[in-house]
Amino acid sequence: MAGGACGRAGNRSTRRLYLNVFLLGVLISAFLSNDATALLLTPIVYSLVTRLRISALPFMFACTFIADTASFLLPVSNPLNIIVLSHFRLGLLQFCRLLLLPSVLVISLNIGAFFLLFRRQIAGTFEIKRLGTPENAIRHPRYFRYVLVVLLLVAGAYVVVSLVQQPLSLVAIGGAALLLLGALRWKLVEWKALGKEVSWSIFGFIAGMFIVVQGVENIGLTQRFAQVLTSVAGTNTLTATLVGTAGAAIGSNLINNLPMALVLVSTIGALSGASPGVQLALIGATMFGCDLGPNLTTVGSLATILWLLLLRRRGMEVSSLDYFKVGILITPVMLLVGALAIWVMLQV
């Protein structure tokens, strides 16, 4: 249904369709997280572009890049935002004040750069009749309406719970329970098929990441990182923002963004003598660098790993080198522009 709506709104223009995919990705990431964007948007868009017989690769790259690029619009847009905010007790308003402008800027940069990079593949038009009728896209109208209501409630609850600084996990669990109850009510759940759709190996991967982080803390590396950060940043918020962003981005592509965020949270917590401005700069840089930095490689974030798994199930391979060739062109520029925007917001 969402894919068909994007196609019809494109009015036969492949470029407009491309823009609509980006905008839909921003919406999903903002309220349902970057991982949800990879899981939901990728199969929808793949099915859409193959039906329309247009080049799939630019659209697939749009799905994964916008997932991370838009993952700091709201605290819930990326699970690591929640981890960082809960540790330092920052509220929704302070989060938006620090990261909303950088988010808008890098989203605009991402869209503009991809339009330039894939200008040949997204030129031309498509036949709307290949989309079929909207009615055929909805298999169960009553459950479809139920899901829409639940998702709207979850999106609103995320904002409210963020404002009062309560655990966002309660909203996520509640929303999942409501969706499952609805599926059971209309007998739309096939437990065996549902189990096959879960990438169980991911749980082992995440558990391993937390073990690595704990080992880093136990041998005293976070204390050492804290000393280095203190000596490099000093009392300069610009230096702290740039160094923090670069360190978070590089580390995310070495050990994945979630463990890197945990390491940096521990490191910032161990800082001694840092001014509140420098500490806030490092907190913002941690979320920004760990959210956006993974666009450089395929191992930087869980969303990208899930994206690769979904593509492989559909017989489409994107190598790490091909991904890096795209990421290296735009990610460093977005990181620099976003970091400078964070610093500007710190001065306001």
Name the poorly predicted regions.
none
Counting DSSP E segments of at least 2 residues, the number of strands comes to 0
Q: Which structural class matches the secondary elements?
A: mainly alpha
The main sheet comes to: none
First CA to last CA: what distance?
Answer: 43 Å
Alpha-carbon Rg, integer: 21 Å
Work out the helix count. Answer: 17
Shape: globular
Strand content: under 5%
Helix content: over 70%
H/E element string?
Answer: HHHHHHHHHHHHHHHHH
Work out the count of structural domains: 2
Rounded average pLDDT: 85
How would you summarize this macromolecular structure in one to three sentences?
The protein has 348 residues and is mainly alpha-helical.
Describe this structure in words.
By secondary structure, this protein is mainly alpha-helical. The protein contains 17 helices and no strands. It folds into two domains: 299 residues, no CATH class; 47 residues. 76% of the residues lie in helices and 0% in strands. The longest helix is centred in the C-terminal third of the chain and has 28 residues. It is globular and about 65 Å long. The termini are far apart. The mean pLDDT is 85.
